[in-house]
Amino acid sequence: MPRFAANLTMLFTELPFAERFAAARAAGFDAVEYLFPYDHAPEALAALLRDNDLTQVLFNLPAGDWAAGERGIAALPGREAEFRAGVDRAVAYAKALGVPRLNCLAGKVPDNDPTAAQAAWSTLVDNVRFAADRLAEAGLVLLVEFINRKDIPGFFLHSTAQVLRLMDEVDRPNVLLQYDVYHAQREEGELAATLCAHMARIGHVQIADTPGRHQPGTGEINYPFLFAELDRLGYAGHVGLEYVPAPGTLASLDWMRPYAQRA
């Protein structure tokens, strides 16, 4: 049976952020994730996790000016110092919260400029190698995620193959792929085949259905089959619920009833 982690950036948004931890616990989860912790003191977040008997499995490295539309800076030449300072800040939060893995977002790069693309790739390799080494010192895993270009045009990493190539070039054992099934389905398909071929290099799985990015069962992806595949392949991590609940969070959890263990 898969173990599910509630993504508190996407779920329970009818509540203030600090109240989502208790709501997740009450709904049956014992694990959570969310995009960024940096607007809150690490001590306050650690208390919320502890008081609600929750484990946090993931958050992202600082990703630039999110409100202005940035979606990561790891591949942006000229932002290296900002990226590397963000890595150190993320590691400090991870230690305080007991989080074992951090996700790196590459960012958006014009895809019609080969020169810019080459500079972005070189910058990304150097930054990911730096981050991997810093995280290794703390006993942490670095994840790298690709995102579909329909939702985020210009996102630099948009396929499994690109992330695997990056991992090969970076050549660090603590760098793994974050496989978001929603982004994979929108960009390339071949979900089960990809999981089967590359499970040893996948460090975290996230899910949403398509179209709409709502909960499993609202779209075209056969999630019962994929969950069975994850079990068959021996995936031992959590599955992050990074979806837009419809019509609301608690109603959106009905699809989980066949699974005796939610979290």
Helix and strand composition category: alpha/beta
Helical percent range?
25-40%
Quote the CATH topology: TIM Barrel
Report the mean per-residue pLDDT as an integer: 96
Short description:
With 263 residues, the chain is α/β, with parallel strands linked by helices. It has nine helices and eight strands.
Task: Explain what you see.
This protein has 263 residues and is α/β, with parallel strands linked by helices. The chain has a single domain (3-217, 229-256), classed as TIM Barrel. The protein has helices at 17-26, 42-51, 80-97, 114-137, 160-170, 181-187, 191-198, 223-232, 249-252; strands spanning 3-7, 31-33, 55-60, 101-104, 141-145, 175-180, 202-207, 238-241. The longest helix has 24 residues, at 114-137. The relative contact order is 0.15.
Record keyword descriptors for this entry:
263 residues, 39% helix, single chain, 8 strands, TIM Barrel, alpha/beta
List the helices and strands and how they pair.
Blueprint lengths: L2 E5 L9 H10 L4 E3 L8 H10 L3 E6 L19 H18 L3 E4 L9 H24 L3 E5 L14 H11 L4 E6 H7 L3 H8 L3 E6 L15 H10 L5 E4 L7 H4 L11
Parallel strand pairs: 1-2, 1-8, 2-3, 3-4, 4-5, 5-6, 6-7, 7-8
Helix pairs in contact: 3-4
